[in-house]
User: What shape does this take?
Amino acid sequence: MAMLLEIRDLHIEALGEDGRWQEIVKGVSLELEPARVLGLIGESGAGKSTIGLAALGYARHGCRLARGSIRLEGEELFGATSEKLREIRGVRVCYVAQSAAAAFNPAHRLDDQVIEAAVQHGIMSPGEARAEARRLYAKLKLPDPATFGRRYPHQVSGGQLQRAMTVMAMVPRPDLIVFDEPTTALDVTTQIEVLAAIREAITDEGMAAIYITHDLALVAQMAHRIMVLRHGLEVEVGPTERILEAPREDYTRALVGVRRVQKPEKPRSGGAPLLEVRHVDAAYGAVPVLFDVSVCLEAGRTVAVVGESGSGKSTLARVITGLLPPRKGEVRLDGRPLPPSLKERAKDQLRRIQLVYQMPDVALNPRQKVEEIVGRVLTFYFGTNGAERRREVERLLEEVELPAGFADRYPAELSGGQKQRVCIARALAARPEVIICDEVTSALDVQVADAVLRLLLRLQEETGVAYLFITHDLATVKAIADDIVVMLEGRVVEQGPKSEILSPPHHPYTDLLLSSVPEMEVGWLDRVLRERAERKARGEAVMEAADR
Amino acid sequence: MRPRPSVLVGFAIIAVYVAAAVIGPLVSPYGEAEVVGDVWEPFSAAHPLGTDNLGRDMLSRLLWGASRTIGVALAATLLSFTIGMTLGYLAAVVGGWVDMVLSRAIDTLMAIPTLIFALVVLAVLPPSVVILILVIAVLDSTRVFRLARAVAMDVVVMDFVEVARLRGERLGWIVFREVLPNTLPPLIAEFGLRFCFAFLFLSSLSFLGLGIQPPAADWGGMVRDNANAISFGLPIPLIPAAAIAVLTIGVNLVVDWQLERSSTARRGA
Assistant: This one.
């Protein structure tokens, strides 16, 4: 069978800070048959997006295609004239980006933007393109296909906008669509709907696709073949089943095997709770965010607060830390109520609750060395100074598995995972009883995140610290929680020990949430969709993302 | 990043001016207000830049003027940054009504045209260098406040500042240790620009007769004193005017480089 896309020995370079060109894709070859889906998977910096864009003969600003060959149905795109490339981009090869919100112009109706490429390139008349768009809106299960395009981008949800962007890519009837992390910015319950819609549409329309993601479980649902990339090089390539079931390379095995961190649930001690949130209502100005939220954390245990964006889980952390005094209710530490506002709390009360943030990049002062970052906590709370402080900082760094020499580094000289470890060391320096972990692993690559989770578990065993673990990621919850609190729109939907929450019968929302998490298994998406359809057919209550 | 030749030119210009300001009065051939010749004498060995409208040596007055003009402008700029940065950081870090009151007060001050405001104040108050510095500094500090508040706002929302707040740190620590070091690059560039502005503003005031008072030498005043010479085809008033222009250009060359450097550094981080 003739190949649709053939990339041979592609090298791509990026302009480094020192003004020199550095190779970021170091000789990758791939081929794609018509109407097939190739998954590109790798961690950040693997070069997967760069390769995806090269399929359009495009290199990002500050990058250049250095050498190699990119053939689309035998036609060479490498070094092609810009006229030639214009005939191909948006016509025969289309691109769907991660953030649909950033890709749509908020001042124009969806229809005008969706049909623009097809009309501009003279493929269709505006009327034909509109009709085609309506057909595709229906195909992607968008509401009211006949009038959907009359809306502006802000009038539709994130998941709908992402599907509208897919429609935009499909209207010109391209041979190939490049999907670059199309569901990464979406909530997990929305993601599954978008995935199903995209997959059905490209199969029915007979288009080929390159599907780029960092999530192997996701790509396994979408792709016929998978290519694993690392540091701009191919690790291995093969049919999806083979990659999942019999990975040949250690790196792939590690990717397939991640999230194998498991911790047995600790039995409840039955002792007095260490941290208690009692019937809290909270609001930002006039906007109410939390409604009668009660959460309880015992010493040495881990409570995971799970919910999607907008569920109020981060607001809960702000209430506990005193950044946002609640409207009603109270927070108790060791049985005594904490003053609602941070300013009224005593130094020791502040010390006992520490917070670790999602983005280690902005949680560390770029102008302070690690010694200052961690050491300040020691000076501030315990008056430790000089050589003693230095020794203590080094001990804490070793505790979080970093070399003692890192004390002399600035945050910019550390990787993402290392920065997060410094943040953990800073929290530990206060010798806290509770550490609130706000999405601490979601900005990290899977393997790095896994190592950080393992570290947190070990620290808990050694120091007996309790964690309030805020996350949208159920895999993380399964790995580390003792108790689970499920939140939806500012309310606690369900809470209890991990074993209870994770085994049926579930609250309908918990069920939706649990079943939406991609599993490392070929055919998972089909199975979930089938199960949901069957249960609906039986008349059981099945919640959908749109119901929320 | 290697600095471009233009940056070296900028630094060279600034170095010459600083030298003139510091040692100028010591090396000047004649006294500041000493009448040594005829009116508007041409360039000669005794008077390399000729003489002015009262027969004073131009070179000597230019050197004396350097220390006065640059000194006053620098003092005013330093003072304006002290006021503007303190209030700007306070507004950004404390926020709430403090920010509201300060911002509205500064807006009001900014709404008044600076030159007219300065002319009124200086006409009413007795002429003195201290008052001159104060007026320029207060007027200039409004711009510094705006910038300091804006850059501090960007940093205040960062998680590491929240960490410091959660730790229970006092305002001083948050401002000086967390916020200040992360906002310096744009403010350093602004310092150069503000200095140019203060320097030009001072020159304008002196030209109008409300700046540094005669017989003290000052470049703006020297332009005014000798302005009539232009009608006789003499280049005399262009000499102090050029001295003003060249310093402004030199500072701007360095500021451009500093701005570029800080923006690439931030992108790299």
Notes: Residues 5-22+55-268 of chain B form a domain with the MetI-like fold fold (CATH 1.10.3720.10). Residues 91 and 101 of chain B are 9 Å apart (CA to CA). The interface with chain A takes residues 158-160, 162-163, 165-169, 177-178, 181-182, 264, 268-269 of chain B (CB under 8 Å).
